[in-house]
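Teaching assistant's notes for section 4

Start the section by putting this record on the projector. Ask students to predict, before seeing the second block, whether Glycosyl hydrolase family protein will look compact or extended. Collect guesses on the board.
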Amino acid sequence: MGSKFLVGAATAAHQVEGNNIHSDNWVMENLEHSTFAERSGDAVDHYNKYEEDIKMLASAGCNAYRFSIEWARIEPEEGVYDEKEISHYRKVLDCCEENHITPIVTLHHFSSPAWLIGKGGWGDSYVEDAFARYAEYVVSKLERKLPYICTINEANMGFQLQKVIEDMMKSMQREGNVQVGMNMDMSAVMVGLEEQANAFGCDKEHINTFLAARSQEQELFVMRAHRKAYQAIKKVSPDTKVGLTLSLFDYQPEEDGQEEAARLWQEDFGFYLPYIKEDDFLGVQNYSRKVVTSAGALEPAQDAPLTQMGYEDYPAGIGHVLRKVAKEFPGELMVTENGIATSDDKRRCEFIKEAFSGVESCVKDGLPVIGYCYWSLLDNFEWQAGFCKTFGLIAVDRSTQKRTAKESLKVLGTLAG
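Reveal the predicted structure now:
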């Protein structure tokens, strides 16, 4: 694959750092009628243990680490920047450098400052300049240490959630229709909305956290926030490669499903393409496939192996999606997330080998794929689902925060070699 091919793992700040007290997620987790299965709390204390975690990644043989900088830490109040937190992330980047790890930094991975939600959140044009200012501030402080930036993680998640909710209104669907841990108990959701509205200082129709359902019209605020951030970053650091990431399913049409599969792909990818086609790279995120007929995407077959997340265990999907994206996106491609939630690490080892084989095949065929990041480095907080979904290459005993590398970490490191 060549010495410059990036192989590593990914995390997101809120899911691993702990005590992200100025974020919208922290507010929602701590409400009386929270829709979260449990609170993030100390999470897996990556905020204090990042050095140990990065060294474990490096000693296994990996050469890349994708992690997020937490906006709510950097700008806990609107216009008030916390130099101590910028200093923290500078130390994380220094640690990567010392361990010969290429950092891939995400500026927004689902969690936002609580104050932003009171201003309209991600469903209002206000977010565009607010996000660009934050991006410019971070890069101006850290520019020499930022070879790759993903502005926004899974920028298409809002519309994917909108479709799931619409489907649920027609008939109760399994949570495996979206690649994130969500609570789809609508009665619990409705009870919690009033409390959220009071907490954020907005009405319950306008609680636009990033993980809220959005129309395609509202998705344009997200894409314009990305474009403005892209321009702000390039102004400060022209050599930094900038892109975003998308959540993409491997849609596999049956004979009568070609048209429907094309429509689904257009909603997940084609709609966003005009806003990203000038980016340096695209972060491709895939966990499963969906078989499609003229009636829509089918539930997994009864005998299909499922992950803890409720979707089909299908490692071949990432290679298929890379090939599909490469036909339309002109820049470089990076697998920024791909993984399996399972308690069986032997299966995780096999999943990684099978998925990586598909990525290797793409590279051999000349596709501009520059890296592969497994999700995730650590067993962590899977949003509304809590700590029960185990994706990690490293197990964490949360009573002591003791780390134990799994065999799968060694497997990934071997592939990096």
